Design the sequence.
């Protein structure tokens, strides 16, 4: 009786098998090429694959209207290789990846025949737990009227041990030659096959042996293609009064055409949103951009195969056709690999199939950055955004980033320049980081970091802005209202301050070094506080140890851990102090002491820092330059003069002005 529990176990086993089945969609010029491609991906032979045709291909007319085959391929569950594992399916021990094909039980089998005057027996042993041969059945088959004698003990022994694929003599019978089986060999007129037709023996007659069939075939003049396997199968289980093929010509094998295996997804409709570890879909993160590094292999050509010639039964030559070669589909910004069979990226960028050619595109253009246009962007090249980068999205590029519209509460990271035609509206959480310069019309409530210059047309409001070189406001308004600005060389604007917002300008220091210095000083202070607490705990435990001469085991472990923690903090503090000294020395050695240029008005309340000195503007100041007086070592105000900006270049190489 089948129980519910048994059904559950069977369903669980089926589910496990289904989960192990992987699917892959393949496109190729022919069905054979598609299956060959899939066999490479599954690392198995084509015979182990099953497939569904999604779209039939068409070879075209004179090369026109050609359409590839599209199929979904999966491996036959019965041939899936399973890995031996430990508890819970986890491989036990190192290198525990022994693999075994699914086991199929095969029962044993026996054959009794009469060759000449002998009774012979062939026993094939069972495999993989199959049922053995029943020796009593063999003995019953031997008890025929024409049987003279047989060795029962030998029969029972061979039933257990097998005969190693050979026939063993086990007895004799009353042989009547006139009752022997007879056969005829017929060779086809095209010399492609030969058949044997056997008439069965009567009582006392002998069966046809394999040697008889072979000799008869050779007598007909057959030189090649005689099949021992087919002959032996016919002898074991004779088919009477019907022709059975016993020799076949060696057919020519035409070579397979060359084809391309792409190392990227060529069907962009299959690039979908990413799934997180928790199973949630993040629609901001997609796989739509297939970035590749310079030198990375993008596609491989599987070479055409030479045809293998065949032979007729009389050894006449049968010609085969060689496979058709195809050129590598080499497009822009790629090269042929050293092996001559691969396509390699010649630069970083997005790999694409354009007009059936593999290309690397170093510039990516998108209408905008939002859910509709594909979400966040990570690109090995330059990104051009024709519209806006909306709140909550990010753009990362190894080249430049150009945005024709606005940038919201986003994260922009570029190894080159960042150009925003409109404004950056950070809403106190937007961050823009550039290893080059940043250009924008205005900046509001954002954090900007540039390793060169920050150049803004209208205003910087309530923002944190740092530049390793200059911060320049260049338009008619050119105002800085609120926030903290850091530049090593120059800060230049028309109006600074006003509106009640606290405004701080710092020049003459390396912003990155200064931020790192502040971070290190904070870490050092934290370590000193921890060290004070640890020293108190150590002192308390050491006093207990002196009074009692020993400590309980748990307190001994605590004391040992405190010693280790103290040593670790002291090592960290030494590293921090060394780096602090190095940064302080570098800041002192800065040749460019920094200047602040104000062509309009600096309003009261603005705080100015040059090197380590501070100046707070007490009353409005017009048309001035603030700089550091090296002789008297204080901040000095001078008459306004336009800064030298000859080394500041515009954003070259962009589509917008």
Sequence:
């Amino acid at each position: 009786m089948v129980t519910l529990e048994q059904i559950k176990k069977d369903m669980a086993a089926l589910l496990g098998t289904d989960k192990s089945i992987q699917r892959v969609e393949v496109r190729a010029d022919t069905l054979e090429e598609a299956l060959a491609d899939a066999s490479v991906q599954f690392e198995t032979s084509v015979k182990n694959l099953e497939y569904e045709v999604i779209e039939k291909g068409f070879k075209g007319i004179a090369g026109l209207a050609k359409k590839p085959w599209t199929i979904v391929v999966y491996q036959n569950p019965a041939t899936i290789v399973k890995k031996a594992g430990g508890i819970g399916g986890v491989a036990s021990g190192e290198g525990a990846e022994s693999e075994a094909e699914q086991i199929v039980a095969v029962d044993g089998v026996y054959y009794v025949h009469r060759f000449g005057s002998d009774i012979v027996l062939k026993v094939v042993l069972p495999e993989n737990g199959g049922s053995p041969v029943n020796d009593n059945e063999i003995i019953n088959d031997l008890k025929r009227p024409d049987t003279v004698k047989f060795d029962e003990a030998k029969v029972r022994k061979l039933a257990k041990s097998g005969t190693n694929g050979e026939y063993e003599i086990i007895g004799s019978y009353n042989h009547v030659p006139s009752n022997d089986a007879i056969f005829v060999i017929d060779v086809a007129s095209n010399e492609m096959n030969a058949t044997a037709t056997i008439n069965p023996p009567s009582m006392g007659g002998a069966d046809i042996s394999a040697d008889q069939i072979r000799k008869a075939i050779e007598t007909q003049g057959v030189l090649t293609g005689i099949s021992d396997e087919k002959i032996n199968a016919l002898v074991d289980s004779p088919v009477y009064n019907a022709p059975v093929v016993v020799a076949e010509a060696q057919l020519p094998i035409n070579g397979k055409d060359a084809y391309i295996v792409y190392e990227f997804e060529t069907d962009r409709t299959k690039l979908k949103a990413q799934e997180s570890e928790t199973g949630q879909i993040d629609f901001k993160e997609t796989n739509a951009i297939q970035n590749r590094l310079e030198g990375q292999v993008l596609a491989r050509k599987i070479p055409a195969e030479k045809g293998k010639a065949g032979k007729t039964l009389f050894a006449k030559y049968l010609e085969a056709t060689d496979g058709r070669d195809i050129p590598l589909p080499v497009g822009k910004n790629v090269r042929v690999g050293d092996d001559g069979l691969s396509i390699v990226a010649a630069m970083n960028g997005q790999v694409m199939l354009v007009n059936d050619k593999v290309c690397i595109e170093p510039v990516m253009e998108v209408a905008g950055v939002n859910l509709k246009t594909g979400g966040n962007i990570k690109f090995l090249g330059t990104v051009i955004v024709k519209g806006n980068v909306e709140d909550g999205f990010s753009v990362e590029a190894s080249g430049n980033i150009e945005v024709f519209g606005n940038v919201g509460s986003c994260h922009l990271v570029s190894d080159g320049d960042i150009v925003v035609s409109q404004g950056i509206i950070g809403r106190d959480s937007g961050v823009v980081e550039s290893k080059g310069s940043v250009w924008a019309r205005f900046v509001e409530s954002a954090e900007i970091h540039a390793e060169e210059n920050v150049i803004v047309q209208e205003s910087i409001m309530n923002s944190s802005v740092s530049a390793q070189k200059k911060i320049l406001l260049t338009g008619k308004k050119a105002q800085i209202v609120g926030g903290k600005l850091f530049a090593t060389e120059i800060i230049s604007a028309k109006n600074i301050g006003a509106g009640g917002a606290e405004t701080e300008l710092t020049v003459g220091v390396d912003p990155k070094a200064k931020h790192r210095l502040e971070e290190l000083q904070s870490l050092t202070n934290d370590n000193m506080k921890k060290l004070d607490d640890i020293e108190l705990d150590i002192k308390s435990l050491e006093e207990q140890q002196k009074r009692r001469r020993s400590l309980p085991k748990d307190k001994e472990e605590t004391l040992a851990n405190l010693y280790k923690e103290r040593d670790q903090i002291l090592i960290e503090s030494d590293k921090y102090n060394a780096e602090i000294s190095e940064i302080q020395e570098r800041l002192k050695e800065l040749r460019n002491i920094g200047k602040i240029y104000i062509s309009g008005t600096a309003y009261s309340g603005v705080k100015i820092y040059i090197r380590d000195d501070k100046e707070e503007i007490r009353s409005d100041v017009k048309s001035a330059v603030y700089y550091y007086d090296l002789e008297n070592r204080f901040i000095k105000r001078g008459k306004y003069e336009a800064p030298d900006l000859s080394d500041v270049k515009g954003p070259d190489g962009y589509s917008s002005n």
About this structure: The radius of gyration is 43 Å. Residues 69 and 191 are 37 Å apart (CA to CA).
